[in-house]
């Protein structure tokens, strides 16, 4: 299994390290052709406007949209989440426009740009997940087709999934907790076994 980590800017090294701990090949990705052989992609935290500009300069945007169309799992973290979502309510900026949700950037204001919270994330297990928020966005609006995976105690949505796309506002790569990464890898292996099933089926139909 090969899960690439976009390595233009931001916290990509920590994700590569966690994926390797989970036994997955995790190449850093900077060029469009490096996306070709991937089974999944992580878009890490960083600065979303800078990352977007670099993605444009490196010619990555179209290829990433094609990957999403091919159902390749993509996980956006913090700035990566901003880039995956359809629109940003408080900034004039483009995104990849892949998830049917609207985000608010830097939603926690300057006085508490960073904080930590123990979150309930039922899909990763019963133990609370220690979440680190750094100048984090929030999800302000979701449309049908979006599954909410976790909220802050006041109901603010901080993790969502739409089919094979995943997004969260906090940074699992700054903890030792591998559960969120394992959850994403499950999405990757589900697609691989699904595609393999299709091939077996197609093979079956070809058999006289
Ligand atoms: N504030 C950043 C942005 O909106 C995101 C911060 C992060 O990724 N930790 O681009």
Helix content: 25-40%
Assigned CATH class: Alpha Beta
Instruction: Tell me the structural class.
Output: alpha/beta
Mean pLDDT metric: 94
Can you walk through the features of this model?
The structure is a single chain. The chain has 208 residues and is of the alpha/beta class. It has a single domain (3-203), classed as 3-Layer(aba) Sandwich (Rossmann fold). The protein has five helices and twelve strands. A seven-stranded mixed sheet has the order 2-1-3-4-12-11-10. A three-stranded mixed sheet has the order 5-6-9. Strand 11 (157-162) and strand 12 (165-168) form a beta hairpin. The structure holds glutamine.
Question: Descriptors for this entry?
Answer:
208 residues; Rossmann fold; three-stranded mixed sheet; globular; binds glutamine; 12 strands; 5 helices; single chain; alpha/beta
Question: What is the topological layout?
Answer:
Layout: E1 3-6, H1 12-21, E2 28-29, E3 40-43, H2 48-57, H3 61-69, E4 74-77, H4 79-84, E5 85-88, E6 99-104, E7 114-119, E8 129-134, E9 138-142, E10 147-151, E11 157-162, E12 165-168, H5 179-206
Parallel strand pairs: 1-2, 1-3, 3-4, 4-12, 5-6
Antiparallel strand pairs: 6-9, 7-8, 10-11, 11-12
The structure holds glutamine.
Task: Give a quick precis of the structure.
The protein is built from five helices and twelve strands. It has 208 residues and is of the alpha/beta class. The strands form three sheets. It has a seven-stranded mixed β-sheet.
């Amino acid at each position: 299994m090969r899960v690439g980590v976009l390595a233009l800017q931001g916290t990509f090294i920590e994700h590569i390290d966690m994926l390797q701990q989970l036994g997955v090949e995790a190449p850093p990705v900077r060029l469009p052709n490096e996306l070709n052989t991937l089974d999944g992609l992580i878009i890490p935290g960083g600065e979303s406007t800078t990352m977007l500009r670099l993605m444009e300069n490196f010619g990555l945007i179209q290829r990433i949209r094609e990957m999403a169309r091919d159902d390749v799992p993509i996980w956006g973290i913090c700035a990566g989440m901003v880039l995956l979502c359809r629109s940003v309510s408080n900034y004039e900026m483009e995104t990849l426009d892949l998830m049917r949700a609207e985000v608010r950037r830097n939603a926690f204001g300057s006085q508490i740009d960073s904080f930590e919270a123990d979150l309930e994330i039922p899909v990763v297990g019963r133990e609370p997940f220690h979440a680190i928020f750094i100048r984090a966005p929030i999800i302000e609006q979701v449309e049908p087709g979006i599954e909410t995976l976790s909220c802050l105690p006041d109901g603010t949505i901080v993790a969502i999934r739409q089919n094979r796309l995943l997004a969260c506002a906090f940074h699992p790569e700054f903890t030792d907790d591998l559960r969120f990464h394992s959850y994403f890898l499950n999405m990757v292996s589900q697609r691989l076994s699904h595609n393999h099933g299709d091939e077996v089926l197609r093979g079956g139909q070809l058999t006289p």
